[in-house]
Structures are given as structure tokens and as C-alpha cells.
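Researcher: Here's the sequence for the chain we discussed earlier.
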Amino acid sequence: MRIDNRDGLPAGDTDDPVLIAAPRGGIPRVIDTPEALADAGEQLRGGRTPVALDVERAQGFRYGADPYLVQIRREDVGTFLVDTHALPDLTALQDGLNDVWLLHDAEQDLPNLRSTGLTLPSLFDTEMAARLTGLRRFGLVAVCEQVLGLTLLKDHQASDWSVRPLPTDWLRYAALDVELLTELYRRLSVTLHDRGRWEWALEEFAYIASRPVPAPKKDRWRTLPGAKKIRSRRLLEVLRQLWETRESIARDLNISPGLLVRNAALVQAASQPPRNRRSLLKIGEFRSPVARQYSEAWLRAINRGVNADEDQLPPLRAPEIPGAIPDARHWPRIDEDAAARLTAVRAAVAEVGDTLDLDPEVVCEPRVQRMIAWAPVEPSRDCEDVIDERMTISGARAWQIDLVRTPIAAALSSV
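Model: Thanks. This is the structure I predict for it:
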């Protein structure tokens, strides 16, 4: 195993990555009091290195995606584990975090960090950086293995982080999640500079930092597995009422909706609506100790759906959003020319990706490719100008537009 002489870390070219089993400074105590938070803020203010951060949630256990633990590390200060259930406001730390933030897959964690009152100064996303260097496996463990020759255990990634007190093994895992981010930042930064892709990365980081939290999807009840098999508008209304009732109860109880009643049981009850409590409890999911307490609420939901006025019933299929681009799977059937243009666009983007050793989705996201291909270019317009406009409207970054504008125009000219 070759060693980097600067800091003793492996150089990242080994086929046998070294397991990092414990944080260098030991497992930090959990910060769960205002006094401890203030002390952490004072220590962090003395740091001069970038700030590595991560967030642990309790998705699948609690309602929503609230943060329950925030991990913070500055190499010249140490690691801090903050209980954000006990301390939901972390603004006391802001002065000690006014440096570049190092996050892996920042889009996942930024909304949580902002919900604690923290403000992002600037961003380096190690996942995006890894993708821009050409890595095709870009989870944190995979990037650590490929770049550093080190590996981490991910055995508590899907744990219930709302549990208190948190087990020692979980805290070890949490501390390790920020242990290597600074070294990844160093190595990936060098590679990006060497390959002339640093400016691309800055554009990507700025784009990620500026993205708003996506609005909740409308009519999420339609996405339940099996919902499309329901062919009656009235039964779909029963499903909607059951879904909304489950959401309300789960929110009040702060548990994941799927732990209350699984999706399949909602679809089953909507497909053949029970008429009374006895028939409802024949569906096993509704007999659980928690769900059966709300039998009357489930029956009221069913009755609202069964007795709803005709004009209140949802359409059999979700209405199309005006101006929305159809699902690309349907293009060969509804617009053969558009399907041919999309094939040409995909081929051009893939060729650029091959040349640069980049995943085509990094070069030009699929949704942007669809935006380019869906409508024909008017004969009076310059094709490259139209591509530029459509990519800009879609949120593509300048470096992406510069790379693919001409190849896509050439590909479309032959369709």
C-alpha cells in the first residue's frame, strides 16, 4: 500500500481499501444542552479549516425528514455531534461555521441544516466533485475507497436516529461520516484543477446551493403501488381519503405513515371498501395495536369517499400539466419525430461523455435532453441558439451548454 507522505493517508490506488473503524479523536460526546452548544461554537470559531457536515434523520421511522443529529468537523478543532431534537436552533454555531462547507450529496442535507437556522457560506459537494472527475460510483464509501484507499462501515445508515440515548456504535458511525470529507476535498480539488474542471465544479456547487426545496408532489396518493389498477373514480376518492387520513394521523403521532398502515392495505381497502369495523379489521394492517385505535377515523374516510358528490371525484388519470413535456416512454407513440430527436440528442451527449470519461447524465441531465428534443427547431431559428435557450431555461450550467451545444445541433441536423 503506497502512503501519502504528507499525512499518512493511503494514496487511493490500492485494490484493498483500509477500514477506518474509529474516529481519530475518539467518539465525541453528544451536545444536547445550550451550554455545551455555546462551548462548541466557541471552539469552532477558532478553526481555520473547511467545515465538514452531515445529517442523520429518522426516515422510515418518524414523520417527515427532520434532522435528529448533525455532525460537524474542522480538522484543526475536532468533531462535534449535535442533538438537533434537543437543540433545534443551531444559530449559536454560525460564526464558527463561516467557511466552505464540505457535504456529500448536499441536496439531501442542506434543507435540514437550513431548518436549524444555519446559513451556507459556500459549498464543496464531494459527491458532485467525484462525478466531475469521472467516478461512476459516487456514494461516500465508494468515493473514499476510490480516492483515498479507505473504507467506512455504513451499517447504521438506515437506523432510527430519533432513539435516545443514541448507542455508542451509532455515534462512532456518525463521527466517521465527517472524518474523511476534508481529505476528499483536498484530493478531489487537485484532480479537478489538473483536469481543467474546477470552474465546472464551482458552477455546480453554486447551482446546488441556490436550488429551492422541491414542492411536495401533487396527488401523491396516486403513486401508491396498485393505485393504477383502480378503475373507478369513486374508489379512487376512497383511496385519497384514506391516504389523507393516514397522513394526518401519522403526522400527529410523528411516525412514518408506512408504520401506521402500509400502502398495500390502503389500496386493498379502497378497492373493496369495508362497510363496518368488523370488515375493516379483516384487513390485517388495520388490526395492529396502533391502527385499530383509529378504526372510526378509517371508516369515516371510507364513507366520505363512498358518499362524495360526483363533481368531487378525481379523474381516473392524473390531469396533464399544461405545457408539461410527456413521459419520454410515450414519445414513439405520440410523436415519432420527437422520439427520433431525443435519440439523436442522447447519442450526441453520450459521445461527449465518452470523450471526457464522464457519465452522460453529468454532461447533460436527462430532463434537459428532453427539453431540447421535444419541440422541433423552427427553420428560421439558428439551432445552436435554440439549444442554448432551452438548456438555460432548464437550469443547465454554462459549462454544460458550451460542451454539448454544437454536437447536439449537428446531431439534430441529421434527423
